[in-house]
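Here's what a typical entry looks like (Molybdopterin-binding oxidoreductase):
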Amino acid sequence: MSASVHFRTCNLCEAMCGVRIEVADGRITSIKGDSEDPFSRGHICPKAVALRDLHEDPDRLRHPMKRTASGWERVSWEDAFRDISHRLHSIQKEHGPNAVGAYLGNPNVHNLGAMMFGPQLLRALRTRNRFSATSVDQLPHQLAAHLMFGHQLLVPIPDIDRTRYMLMLGANPLASNGSLMTTPDVRARLRAIQERGGKVVVIDPRRTETAGIADQHVFVRPGTDALALFSLLHVVLEGNAHRMGRLAAFVDGLDTVLPLVRDFPPERTAPHTGIAPDVLRGIARDFLAADGAVCYGRVGVSTQPFGSLCQWLINVLNIVTGNLDREGGALFTLPAFDLIGGPRAFGVSPGSHGRWKSRVRGLPESSGELPVAALAEEILTPGEGRIRALITLAGNPVLSTPNGTQLDTALEQLDFMVSVDPYLNETTRHAHYILPPASLLERGHYDLVFHVLAVRNTAKYSPPVFPAGPDSRQDWEILLELQHRLKTLRKGRSVRAVLKYQALKRMGPERILDLGLRMGPYGSRFHPLKKHGLSLAKLRAAPHGIDLGPMKPSLPGRLRNRSKRIQLAPELLVADVARLRAAFPDDAAPREGELLLIGRRHLRDNNSWMHNVPGLVKGRPRCTLMVHPDDASRIGLADGANATIRSRVGEVTVPVAVTADVMPGVVSLPHGYGHQRPGIRQQVASAHAGASINDLTDDQALDVVSGNAAFSGTPVQVRPA
Ligand SMILES: Nc1nc2c(c(=O)[nH]1)N[C@H]1C(S)=C(S)[C@@H](COP(=O)(O)OP(=O)(O)OC[C@H]3O[C@@H](n4cnc5c(=O)[nH]c(N)nc54)[C@H](O)[C@@H]3O)O[C@H]1N2
Ligand SMILES: Nc1nc2c(c(=O)[nH]1)N[C@H]1C(S)=C(S)[C@@H](COP(=O)(O)OP(=O)(O)OC[C@H]3O[C@@H](n4cnc5c(=O)[nH]c(N)nc54)[C@H](O)[C@@H]3O)O[C@H]1N2
Ligand code: SF4
Ligand SMILES: [Mo]
């Protein structure tokens, strides 16, 4: 019997937990937390064991599949690549480059090879119709970072290990394990804030798991956080008393912010937010008094109608209280593979906004992509520039983007669709080809993105646990192959292109990673003899990972704009304040009887794609509508009975969970369900189908500035089914 032990970083969520995987005779016999991982210190969540289940899942596709009149057929990689590249090429030749669209889902960001080779395929496609999960998630963060600090990835990270006051809006890290704040064992780290005499405060329309361990929880009416943040700033800046300290020397725009915040005293916003003025003043006072305070807001405050204002004002609050770029506040990371400050070849673009607009609705481009809420209409609306073919890479937009039913219908209209994905699911069932990559344990891993977003600087490389089979291809190999063939068809065969392709194929992600590490801030190029002198070899020799220390102040040097000054009042965002005022006039009270829908995550879910893991879906059904007892009795809903929820775009029926944990007037349904659609091949998920919240959310509801979907606060009517 052959047995081996492998150390690895779990790549299922953003937390980067170290795992210890035991293998005997080619099968995983145990997955545990790696107690020697300097960052996660042995922590894992129940999803870690799914690394095995996903690898072994009989429903996971192992070969390229082609949809034919008589069903799905296995085809060879060569036939698939040849046909796909020819079809895409001829569609672009006839109808122009924009006739092919692309959608990139969330798992790309957790995939070293896809991160490195995805952008090259997109460039080869030359299409403006690029979409991704960014615009149903963190686009407002990136827009604020781009406009204020000069780079879309310069997202301030809460210094959770040293702060003494953590104010959280629209985040539930106890379920999500933290986001744009890579934090293994977030529960222990939050508890530690309390143990050192600090406070954790949660503002959320639901008393979440995180709110449950916080020192204070405050309900807020969905979609009104920008008002609450303005009011916090109003109190903090009363008498124009900013406390920027050393930041003052490189901050522009305070004079623009001051008159804005004067307009939003807590008394004025309270009727809309539902937050009592005293409560808000108390939070502002505590925030100011704490020796190291940080405000952090995540999905709940970015996927809402004023998402960009929220992310901007959160940064402003941290800045004007002197908590940006200081220990215990919010800091920027210095990752070993530096996507922000390193050589351009290894970097991510600083960001852009509004260089072009979507064809139908005129929504702005951000960093080269368009808001995915516009994808369906770009397929459905006739005319020049219509999307006729689509590539999806690791995405399930039918379940994850607003008005999923409409997109579901739109995908049927495509002339051609190809999906790079291990599953036949709600989205990929529309594809003409599905190209499944090797499993996640058959590839090497390094978190290019999440090290940028982590609460501590560390570096770790995970070698593959299993070799990939001869007939399997890595994500990056698929992307490189498609890119090369498309280019060759367009430009003809050139020696230079072939050499480049062969070189890239030989290098693969690992060699590029090695170069990036060497050129990086701890790299062997700069410190060949110094303590770190990082290279891939160095990481391979440290299987538990290397600790590079806590985040450190780095401003103004780390700013990426030309002025090297923080822009506190970007014009684009300041201009959006008028929309906020108009949406909440003084004389308008919230409508009686109106219910606002919000989402929810559970520790055992991961967006739409882990419901096929038996161990994660067992127990009571989780796709339930939480309703406050007052609303339930008014409507006549009993706990456990079915309710029908209707919005402007659709209707779904799910069981009700009556609970005082949601605010009156608010109902909550998790996302990522809705596996009842025919033609999918995920047996376990189909048996735990639930309903998709995105059959209710509205593709017309946006954070208008960024184009990000505004899921939170979708108006719905609920009745007994
Ligand atoms: N209403 C509502 N909607 C939401 C959200 C919400 O809070 N509320 N959250 C939004 C957020 S934050 C996000 S990030 C999006 C996610 O949106 P998506 O990324 O579109 O959806 P996922 O469910 O993550 O689907 C991931 C897909 O990738 C495939 N996959 C998994 N691993 C791999 C791999 O290694 N390689 C390849 N090629 N494919 C792989 C899976 O089979 C699945 O098809 O959903 C958004 N949608
Ligand atoms: N277990 C699990 N972990 C995950 C995921 C998963 O699906 N499951 N998805 C991963 C992904 S892709 C992401 S982006 C992260 C997201 O990580 P988080 O942002 O922590 O995600 P959520 O748990 O959805 O927390 C959002 C919170 O916002 C609240 N909320 C909704 N509307 C509003 C509002 O208008 N105002 C305020 N103040 N709050 C509001 C909701 O009640 C909820 O508690 O999680 C990641 N981790
Ligand atoms: S918290 Fe995230 S990274 Fe850690 S074990 Fe769970 S899924 Fe994996
Ligand atoms: Mo996300």
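The pocket of iron/sulfur cluster (ligand 3) is lined by residues 10, 12-13, 15-17, 44-45, 47-48, 177, 184 (CB under 6 Å).

More examples are in the samples folder.
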